[in-house]
């Protein structure tokens, strides 16, 4: 296997982005459960995110969701983040929480509503300029619920037109990360249902349009690591929205449902040159902590990604290549499984100690009393949440 | 095929139950879109449901959801329904919309919360007594999101205990209809995920516990009509929650996604003695009209069930039996497909005319001006909806 | 709805291609059941296919599978087909039935085996030249069964190289139809698992490389008609391999499992300009008649496609467009469903009579005595089948 | 976590049964690849199986498949096995590889064919008597491919009748293990598609009828460990057919596709009292080595089950229970994950050394030269395989 010092050196460069919305209340259509100490503002969300970085050392940036994180002074928000030791990362556009968007946003049959949606996307680029963000993440809830409801092809034309206008507005160091999703909230067609559709649109936009892989957005049985390998080969992997699922877009903690899949994904990332500074691949979390506490849920998720990465880095690439070329099915599989079977927790504890961190981030955060203080202090006001 | 007069006579006995909650606003976790004229009370929901019956003639009862339809005087509510030409049907218990139920209701690890949940179920039987309902429909959102979160077997024990207590409280003409669902809102285990689990619990309770098949609650690829045939053979098919789906529990209008599947289900119902007075099978709708208008959505759904039923009744049972016994694969399939390929809309229009109804319920309701009046009158107050 | 004469005129131009292998024995890994009268040669398969065309009038060509249909004199085979009233259509390459291909064909880690596979593909182009075929259909069983078994990216490189060599060999009026399949016989990765991968390869090859949609080759829940609309918009829909499925690649008769899906697909084909002479979209059947008789199974399949096409042609495009643009969800859906609910069998019977055919192809073939004669005559020799 | 000596003691009692057919050639409907050294007789299959036990120490029995393993003298076969250090275990009945079974075996519409099928099942009990086997494993390929093809309910009646006759024939220490499977080779209905159907039949038969869980026989998304917990609670878990899958019934090596799922299954087995002598749960492998060598493939599979078992035994049951009762979602999940993240290979190597085995069974078998000798010796004759 790869030498441990090399693995540690690589792990030191890792950077996982946290979603501001993971710290607010979330739930299903059946119920959003309120939790004590939940943030009431973008500033408090960033403060919570900064805790995750403080204990793990690998989560130095926070993604915003507009309008959920709309503030008057974005420069001040960015300064607030910096003061807490983190940066503002990707800006996520939200064009699905307005009654006008009942039949879609940029693909709506009504041109007035399309205009409103595009204007919101352009506003998001303004926010990017203000906070110094390079990534505009676009996920569209657009689609239809019933056969015949709208014209599949016309909706593609409208989508393409909107994307062109937004792409043209980007600064030279900014890019579009286009996300796909098979279904939900639309239940018959989704306008960007799969990686192929996202890829086809990106190709027409230009080099600064790339595909985002949300690990919960696929049909049952889809081989996600294959898509990762393909997009890296095409130079079109913009990043990940990590989470995990047993059934649909469950948005559970990444690594909770299928840690071996997460390892296989990270293996393809490492093998395809998607890991490390300069790779251009953004590693973002996008998940909901419906029933578990938010900050510990994020810490656990970050650790799960870090463990999968460590295992992927341990894979003996030379031995794997030799077995693969020799057609040794069991031998090649065994090389991969050796890395996966390794318990990397001691290695990571050591790495943290070397970085001046507590070897056990979960326990250290629990001991800190932050959660109790937040619950005591954050009284009154409106808890942040989906749609709030 | 079966003679048309016989088909018509059978169709005259059909009875489809409407869900009160289908007339309120609904949506996904991403957004609940508000619609004009939506009811603000249980009484207004029943009034809307009565419209569906007035135009279709086959929807004479309305199911309640407690606490969504909680009122001070249930006898008055029942009288209100009767005055509008409909009856109150099944009572649905809701033990998922309270912060206490974060980790489950009757299967919660906390005995105090279990008590609270059971007490709510018992209250629902009180409501049944008050409105004269024979059916208690139980669907539990209970389950877990993470491996290890709770003990699968202990949760079954708690569930069984709660069911026993509720079953003991039933009046002699009342029954439990136990519903199963693969996932959502729980994403790792659901305490009643499949028909087998519901069936095993019903067996232990007694004859007045039966299984409800919600057509959107299965794993991909599940053959629902097979389950229907099996439960009828076992005498344990309590009824249906009809809706349709392309992906998960999409709750689209029944018959919208796969009309052939609906026909196959109705074929097994007819073949297995589940159709007609005395069969004891309740045909209920349970769906959401997230983007389409509510009353027309219910009318369309009722018509879809009626059309599928008419086709199922048309199947030439003798010819089918002969082909099946003879091992004539294509011939037997052709007998079934002949009925399915038939356009039954003229037959149904004729039936409605004979019953003194407009042959086209959709157009007749649209012409009536009811929707416009509701939108004008129902101003102020809180629109009913999921959780309202 | 569209005027019936226009629908009939369009239907007269329809052309569905039959697969020679559908007339041989087929089965699952558990058992291939032998049937009486099954062809023993390519010539006999073509004779059977000609029967399907004789009774339906819409199946004027037969696809070959090489090496299953390998003969010494392809020009004679083509003449034999012409004499029976049909033409030879697409040539299908088969690089999966040789012990050498255990770890793949064009993507095999062994360069010698890759060479052998490519040579077979080039031989198929020779066959195309000899029989006058314009279409080379490529489906690769290539893939891996275990994580780590081979390098995903290297396999893509090898695949691309092979495709380039074959594409370069094509005559000016010939094209590659590249098929994708999610899984089977490979169970971890498939080298062309989805339309996106096929599309990406076709883009790099050139205009004469297009994607084939096999209706049984998708993950559960995939919206196939969406892919059809997309590929037509991109000018990359080469054709269909029609069949139907309830679970995986079941290869049942097209239209048997979900006739509504088949209608929706044909609706997108018609709407997107994929129907009619000059559209360049090949409508091929690719299915197995494991338990039902072969020729009647093909006749039923052809009729199913024809019925779905007739319904799609009946859709009132102007009314649909108006409802879609107006955001009338239920109205737009109703326009589509009106066409689907129509019983088109009388219209098709009429069309056949006008064409001098029997209005009921199934009954007419049964009366003809062909099946009985084939069973009596085709004694001795080796029945054709998968792998034969 | 549980103390290592206790874990080792428990592991010493483990017993995994090997399938004789895993040593023969297998494949998909597309191709069965021949491998060197494959057995040509039941005796050679047992010899190969004995190798797996010799190196792992936990695979002391071999299951037979009749008629694949039909011999003249079963007592001699049992003695042959004993001489090689293994025993003959479960007898598997095969009623799907005869042209008569095209439309089913015990559920066939033809009573003569049903009789033939039942007679074969009775013959299998004779074999059990002769070899001293206590388990009759029944899997039926029975089902239908097309809607209407046969009567779902009549098929259940026929199936029940056949099961009753076979059950009555069992000796007092013999039992029926009834297996279910969602689909394949039947593609519309399967007569025993899910655990609920198998369970309902077993209930009616009596205590000596139990359900077998084949880990590849479920719909996508099915929670298998939940079924395991339920069947153990009902006293109806007869055993496992282990293998793994990414898509359908892929029959890959157990633990290869989702090792975490295998661990969760073993956790429920241990928690529910299904592990250890006297539990009555049979741990069997049922898988195909289509592209990898057979004996090493079985060794790897046995090791995968052993590793998952070791991890399940390591789970700190007291800590888990406390966290679960306290509603500590993340804490309870962490207890489970701690055991899963542990690298148990050193513990298992130690255990083997204590048992006088080589710590690395894979390497030891490779060094032994057995495979090379088998390839040299087993020349001529017909290689065993599916259907052979």
From TrEMBL, chains A, B, C, D:
<dbReference type="GO" id="GO:0019324">
    <property type="term" value="P:L-lyxose metabolic process"/>
</dbReference>
<dbReference type="GO" id="GO:0008740">
    <property type="term" value="F:L-rhamnose isomerase activity"/>
</dbReference>
<keyword id="KW-0479">Metal-binding</keyword>
<dbReference type="Pfam" id="PF01261">
    <property type="entry name" value="AP_endonuc_2"/>
</dbReference>
<feature type="domain" description="Xylose isomerase-like TIM barrel">
    <location>
        <begin position="54"/>
        <end position="249"/>
    </location>
</feature>
<dbReference type="GO" id="GO:0046872">
    <property type="term" value="F:metal ion binding"/>
</dbReference>
<dbReference type="InterPro" id="IPR050337">
    <property type="entry name" value="L-rhamnose_isomerase"/>
</dbReference>
<protein>
    <submittedName>
        <fullName>L-rhamnose isomerase/sugar isomerase</fullName>
    </submittedName>
</protein>
<dbReference type="InterPro" id="IPR013022">
    <property type="entry name" value="Xyl_isomerase-like_TIM-brl"/>
</dbReference>
<keyword id="KW-0464">Manganese</keyword>
<keyword id="KW-0413">Isomerase</keyword>
<dbReference type="GO" id="GO:0019301">
    <property type="term" value="P:rhamnose catabolic process"/>
</dbReference>
<dbReference type="InterPro" id="IPR036237">
    <property type="entry name" value="Xyl_isomerase-like_sf"/>
</dbReference>
<dbReference type="InterPro" id="IPR013457">
    <property type="entry name" value="Rhamnose_iso-rel"/>
</dbReference>
